[in-house]
Design brief:
The protein is built from five helices and nine strands; from the N terminus they run αααααβββββββββ. It is of the alpha+beta class. The chain is elongated and about 115 Å long.
């Protein structure tokens, strides 16, 4: 009888030890899951904050970047912001963190949408002509998306994450901070116009125009050796060394310098953009500018081809500075 009691007691002790070991294992796994989640969030937040610094550095007007370069950079930022949303949605997390996770994804979605909107609105805001006021107002409005993302992160994500960590006795685990909008003045259209306006054109607006008439324009264009005609589609072989040649005409009474010629092939974020600066063109001269097309255009469909000769200082008539063509590319 005594032996049976001793054996039963030993069995109970072993069972209790197994229960405690199992609970300890579960607690350890749960703590690891929380710590892993914090590390994942910290990594994403670090990348997002880095994108903010890059975005606003570009928007503040680097002196050595052309309009096409700036637009390409913003399109890249837009793609990166979208990738962060995708990665955030795939983070494994404990069920207790569902609320923090949901708001984290929402904060990143607002950042993605804001960057994408600014990438679309920037060309109007930095145009040498056109509705710059509307473009800068739209960009200022899009800054609200960044402010909203910061409010969501600071009042929803961080508090919920901090509370969950404290409940698990992990209060010492640091909760990452994040702020995408560096300055609330970016919400003011006047501030946007002042800062983004530094990106406009090729810098010729800052020059004092010489006396006499000024004016440049698109005389003609060829793509891959094939002449382009407005209103008609040209059949073009999409060779690796594809280039577009623009005949630029100086219709004014002065020699012009640093005339920027831009080309856009396609639409939207997938459009291929390139540019080249014509060092000088004399009064009455027509001069060829060859612009290499680095990327391969889509094939088997009508693709718009736009050519733009930036206005020069003192130029008033802009009716022939732009030309739009159409091409069907084949391999």
């Amino acid at each position: 009888m005594v032996r049976r009691l001793v054996a039963a007691g030993a069995g109970v002790v072993v069972l209790l030890l197994l229960v405690f070991a199992f609970r300890g294992c579960l607690n350890s796994r749960k703590e690891s899951a929380y710590r892993d989640y914090v590390r994942e969030v910290s990594a994403l937040v670090k990348e997002s904050d880095g994108e903010s610094r890059n975005l606003f550095r570009v928007l503040s007007g680097p002196d050595n970047a052309g309009d096409v370069d700036v637009e390409n950079q913003l399109n890249t930022f837009s793609g990166q912001a979208g990738q962060l949303v995708d990665r955030a949605s795939q983070i494994d997390h404990p069920g207790d963190l569902d609320g923090a996770q949901r708001f984290l994804e929402e904060a990143f979605e607002f950042r993605r949408d804001g960057v994408a909107a600014i990438a679309r609105q920037l060309p109007a805001a930095i145009a040498d002509q056109g509705d710059q006021k509307r473009g800068t107002q739209q960009i200022a409005a899009s800054m609200q998306s960044f402010l909203t993302s910061d409010v969501i992160y600071q009042t929803r994500v961080a508090p919920k994450l901090r509370s969950a960590l404290e409940q698990e006795d992990l209060g010492g685990e640091p909760v990452p901070r994040s702020s995408f909008l560096p300055d609330v003045q970016w919400l003011d259209p006047a501030t946007v116009a002042d800062r983004v306006g530094k990106l406009g054109g090729s810098g010729t607006n800052d020059k004092r125009a010489a006396p006499g008439a000024h004016g440049t324009g698109v005389a003609s264009a060829t793509l891959g050796g094939q002449a382009l005609t407005p209103g008609a589609s040209a059949n073009i072989s999409a060779a690796e060394d594809l280039s577009l040649t623009v005949q630029v005409a100086n219709q004014g009474e002065n020699t012009e310098t640093d005339v920027k010629v831009s080309v856009t092939i396609g639409r939207g974020n997938d459009a291929i953009k390139a540019e080249k600066v014509l060092d000088t063109i004399a009064e009455g001269e027509t001069k060829a500018v060859e612009i290499p097309i680095g990327d391969q255009p889509p094939t088997g469909q009508n693709v718009p081809v736009g050519v733009d000769v930036a206005k020069v200082a003192g130029e008033e008539k802009l009716n022939n500075n732009k030309a739009t063509y159409s091409a069907i590319f084949s391999r």
